[in-house]
Amino acid sequence: QVQLVESGGGLVQAGGSLRLSCAASGRTFSSYDMGWFRQAPGKEREFVAAIGWRTDSTNYADSVKGRFTISRDNVKNTVYLQMNSLKPEDTAVYYCVAGRWGQYDSWGQGTQVTVSS
Q1: pLDDT at position 97 over 80
Q2: Chain CA centroid to CA 59, Å
Q3: What is the distance between the alpha carbons of residues 113 and 43, in angstroms, rounded to a whole number?
Q4: pLDDT tens for residues 10-61?
Q5: Which of 31, 39, 50, 70 is spaced 20 to 30 A from 62 at the CA atom?
Q6: Other CB atoms closer than 10 Å to residue 107's CB: what's the count?
Q7: CA nearest 97: which of 44, 39, 32, 40?
Q8: Mean per-residue pLDDT, 70-79
């Protein structure tokens, strides 16, 4: 497993932007598929975005397509989630994940994103 630490969450007005970062430990970061999930109060955790270890494969939830962009820097062992045109319904705790595509076994502690209307 890899250790993951998220940062970049905060409070933003609707229509604004935030960039989340996830720093990973371990020498094999470049071999992991990475992703982001989120969980809003009273709701189940849901998939947001994923990126393959080769960076040429990405996937997004329909609710964020065209607004969010996932990327990674295998030199810095970091994955990013650029979030634009934020909506109040994007308010949630965002979790970074690592593992194999669709089967992530490492999770970060989460970072809070709050979008005010």
Answers
A1: yes
A2: 12
A3: 15
A4: 999 999 999 999 999 976 878 889 999 999 999 999 999 999 987 679 999 9
A5: 31
A6: 16
A7: 32
A8: 92
Distance of CA 13 to the CA centre of its chain: 19
Backbone phi, then psi, for 22, in 5-degree steps? -140, 110
What tokens were used for 50? 């994923």
Tell me the mean pLDDT in the region 58-67.
Answer: 97
Q: How far apart are CA 11 and CA 45, in angstroms?
A: 20
- Maximum distance among all Cα pairs of the chain, rounded to whole angstroms: 42
How much is the average pLDDT of 83-87? 98
Torsion of CA 88, 4, 60, 104, to 10 degrees: -130
- Which tokens sit at 17? 């932007």
